[in-house]
Amino acid sequence: MTNPFGGQTRPAPGLPQLPTPPTGWPVGSYATYEEAQRAVDHLADSDFPVADVTIVGVDLMLVERVIARLTWGRVLASGAAQGAWLGLFVGVLLFVFSPDGNFLPIVVGLVSGAVFFMAFAAVSYSASKGRRDFQSASQMVAGRYDVLCEPRNAERAREMLAKLAMGGPGGGF
Question: How far apart are CA 20 and CA 42, in angstroms?
């Protein structure tokens, strides 16, 4: 069984599966995830037992990219749009299950969802008192990506990736 944090695990009855550190010997180090992925793809294309391989992000950073400045207009419009979508969904469900085929539930759901969500967005933005007047997106990135391999196949993997880096059979970066 594989866990999302890497490595093989054996589930213990009644215990949660806990993250385990990766195992293996380093066989390559890459500046981007795309390069590490390409290296593992090269190994897979060469019939290498890729179940022994792990990509590990090292020197993790949380990067928050500022997208836009928040204004009252943007906050209210965003709240109204979110509410309209939810209201539309509820309205369509009510319409589908109503016996008379009236479109009124769709309109009521759309409008009431937009109004309520706009009010909630206004209260939330007002409560922040200008401490966070911007919209952003956060992403976890690594400073480098190491490719590890179990010791039984590490030398072979290292040789194959060295040939790949030098532009040998299978192409280079």
Answer: 26
CATH of domain 25-65+139-165: 3.30.70.1370
In 3D space, the residue among 61, 59, 60, 55 whose CA is nearest the CA of residue 146 turns out to be: 55
pLDDT band at 17 (very low <50, low <70, confident <90, very high): confident
CB 94 within 8 A of CB 107: no
In this prediction the pTM is 0.60
Put the strands of the sheet holding 134-149 in their side by side order. Answer: 25-30, 134-149, 53-69
The answer, yes or no, to whether residue 104 has pLDDT greater than 50, is: yes
- Condensed to tens digits (0 to 9), the pLDDT of residues 51-75 reads 999 999 999 999 999 999 999 999 9
Extents of the domains making up the chain: 25-65+139-165, 71-132
